Amino acid sequence: MVGPYRGLFSTPGVKGFVIAGFVGRIPMSMLGLGIILLIEALTDSFAMAGAVAATVNVSYAVAAPLTGRLVDRFGQARVIVPLTLAHGTALTGLMLCAEFGAPAWSLFATGVLAGASAVSLGSLVRARWSHLLAGSSRLHAAFSFESVADEVVFVGGPALVTALATMVNPYAGLIVALVCTIAGTLAFAMQRGTEPPVNRGERHSGSPITIPGVALLSCVFLAMGAVFGSVDLITVAFAEEHGAKPAAGLLLAAFAGGSLVSGLWYGARQWKLSLRSRFVRAIGVFAVGLTPIALIGDVRVMAPALFLAGLAISPTIITGYTLIERLVPARLLTEGMSWVSTSVGFGVALGAWAGGRLTDAFGASNAYGFSFACAILAVIIGVGGSAWLRTPVPQQ
């Protein structure tokens, strides 16, 4: 299983941007959950916690394509350094507002700034791989490796932020996330040798979202993001309802753990099926895997159920990014990949908001039905529009 990944790191400079990119992405699994844990501890309301976390995600989702376009036009380092510093300032402001009991609107205001200035580092890392391995069959393994790296983050991040917020201090998780963001992103920006070149002679007209296949993928990932956002919040409430709130991080780690295992397996295989067929099958398995969690009322049983539910996540995301890479012109690739982040961000915001409302109204176990419904919606959209996912080049 390790074989296909060995040759990825022989190119000079790859190890540097991979390590920096990994550190900089650790907060992506900690930020939303850390905000939920902090605000819920202060207000005793999952609805308020979900609303603030949703505000951060919506702001991020709105800004991500613009950030991607700026990166395509001016280069990665020139854009992400000032954005990272702004993000750190805004997140610090949010924590200070919470600490000193500032009005609720201040939490939303600083949340908007924190989300809008967040960097989609995963898109930038994948853009570097696309630049270095353009036209190579190793790009499948590279994207698979990055998906596995994402899942490693999502396995460890929720458990870490939950432990810090519940056992150390409600602010501790967000502080660690802030340090990782600044250190990792700035170190990534310093890796200039692998940065994709800027096509200054070309006009950057149009947007990748006007490509039918990209629009379809964005809709599918919007629905999947709603699953992620709702499962995150509902699982915290589920653990609390059963008197095991510190276990929430471990439950979410199980969800990501299933995706990690499947990502390693998926990237190690040479596939004969088309990307389109793989994508449709993956989202179908994703929906089927989510069915049990809406029927379980025991924390001990929920962990393996979430592991099984996560098995289809990595294959779906890996294939989605590969489809973007095939469908979008190279000069717009970062923006094209950012639309995945935008869609997931909007979905996570919707899921966190709806999950909080439904949890407060009907309880966590019943609220999982919303997550399952969103997965079914992803299948309907993906299957119904799959004809737009035929790629213009042969499969490797």
Automatic annotation (TrEMBL):
GO terms for cellular component: plasma membrane. InterPro entries: MFS, MFS_dom, MFS_trans_sf. This is Major facilitator superfamily (MFS) profile domain-containing protein. It is found in: Cell membrane. It is a multi-pass membrane protein. Pfam families: MFS_1. PANTHER family: MAJOR FACILITATOR SUPERFAMILY (MFS) PROFILE DOMAIN-CONTAINING PROTEIN, PTHR23542. The chain crosses the membrane at residues 16-39, 45-67, 79-101, 107-127, 171-189, 209-228, 248-267, 279-297, 303-324, 336-355, 367-389. Keywords: Membrane, Transmembrane, Transmembrane helix. The keyword Membrane applies. GO terms for molecular function: transmembrane transporter activity. Residues 213-396 form the Major facilitator superfamily (MFS) profile domain. Its main location: membrane.
